[in-house]
Amino acid sequence: MTILKEMEIEHPAAKMIVEVAKTQDDEVGDGTTAAVVITGELLKQAEDLLDQDVHPTVIASGYRLASEKAREIIGSIATSLSPDDMSALKRIAVTSMTGKGAARDSLAELAVKAVKAVEEDGKVDVDNIKVEKKVGGSTEDSELIEGMIIDKERVHPGMPKTVNNARIALINAALEMEKTEVDAKIEITSPDQLKSFLDEEENILKRIVENIKASGANVVFCQKGIDDMVQHYLAKADIFAVRRVKESDMKKLARATGGKIVSNVDEITESDLGKAGLVEERKIGDEEMLFIEQCDNPKAVSLLLRGGTEHVVDELERALHDALRVVGVIIEDKKQVTGGGSSEIEVALRLREYASSVGGREQLAIESFANALESIPRTLAENAGLDPIDMLVALRSQHEQGKKNAGLDVYRGKVIDMMEAGVVEPLRVKTQAISSATEAAVMILRIDDVIAASAMRGGGGMPPGMPPGMPGGMGEY
Hints:
- By secondary structure, the chain is α/β, with parallel strands linked by helices.
- It has three domains: 2-80 and 338-476, GROEL, domain 1; 82-143 and 309-333, TCP-1-like chaperonin intermediate domain (GROEL, domain 2, 2-Layer Sandwich); 148-297, 3-Layer(bba) Sandwich (GroEL), CATH 3.50.7.
- It is 52% helix and 16% strand.
- It has 16 helices and 15 strands.
- The chain has helices at 2-6, 12-27, 32-51, 56-77, 86-97, 104-118, 191-215, 228-236, 247-257, 310-333, 342-358, 360-373, 375-383, 388-400, 418-421, 427-456; strands at residues 79-80, 129-135, 143-145, 148-150, 162-171, 219-222, 240-242, 261-262, 274-284, 287-293, 301-307, 335-338, 406-409, 414-417, 424-426.
- The strands form four sheets. Strands 4, 5, 6, 7, 8, 9 and 10 form a seven-stranded mixed beta sheet that branches. Strands 1-12-15 form a three-stranded antiparallel beta sheet. It has a three-stranded mixed beta sheet with strand order 2-11-3.
- α2 (12-27) packs antiparallel against α3.
- It is elongated.
């Protein structure tokens, strides 16, 4: 997915395959490579069928039947998982990060704790987990903050750096003199008038601070600006203040601290305040950051990622994104399947049995679909430097003996029980990959079919600039 995001792709069929990866990433957060590999293999298999004079419509129909049956089969071999089984959730996170160069064990544990913290009624919104990256230290220095990290610093050096037992005001209004909506001109004709005008302005700004102080707040997070005079009075009152906090961070602060975002300072009351055991400004690397910690039952948390270089922390963030999403998905669905190519081999085996019951030319398409699924264990073997044919034969042999969880151990180069090895993934990762890949492949086949039919009727042939065949030269059909 990372590479596909960076590529500038013009070919319409290739763009659709990028969309497959994007959908997979949006829906489940992992399995993007698998979805793209299956899509490509389905199209490759389709090309072989077209060479045998199988019509694209028949291939599309067979692929749809196979996709539906594949999802049914994979659902039947899935096992249940308790969302409270922390070690099982960690195994899911570790599997999702395998091959992404991350320190899997420590990050997996952080991911599971973060997801469990924001879970509500069996649902997980990973947007409530804020990830902050800072270069420096090592990966092991990454930590979960049960509260918030804001990449800001206090507005005035006279304010305290640390506030214990923080009572937090969240203000979505400018703490400064409001400007008039229309152009206004004030005429001052004497020094006394000027003094009165400035005194009144100062009194208004003082009242803003008095209202905040009266509510009992000792920490202020403001989404907009804070006037220099207000900063001065807040510092005198020992109130810790931060300005221009992002709206998304304000919402997370409200969830973490239990506070309410207030739009009118005159109406702020003690019941609107959030609470945290500690608010502190700390130097991380060469920058100041704010830590809002020790929140009671926070519904938004933060992860601070550390690494030796910018590339390392970026890679950690990508790995962590996958881990957070898959742990969230498994908590919601409570269904898992084994990895290492075991699920794909089992589905392929059963699809071939199903194909013979369908018969006709669609049988060929269903068998091709089964071959396409086997591209996953084959690719795993190739990437591990193993012989893909030997590995596929060994895997098929184990599955024919009824060993549904037999998968490829890429480290030792042999077939083992994936459940015992703890290589597991959410069911939804697999079903989504199959669905997206099928839809994209069928769409490309149908486009090709329409273009070919138009050309055969003498409808002007291919549109200008369209390559012959979509893709891989299927256009002659």
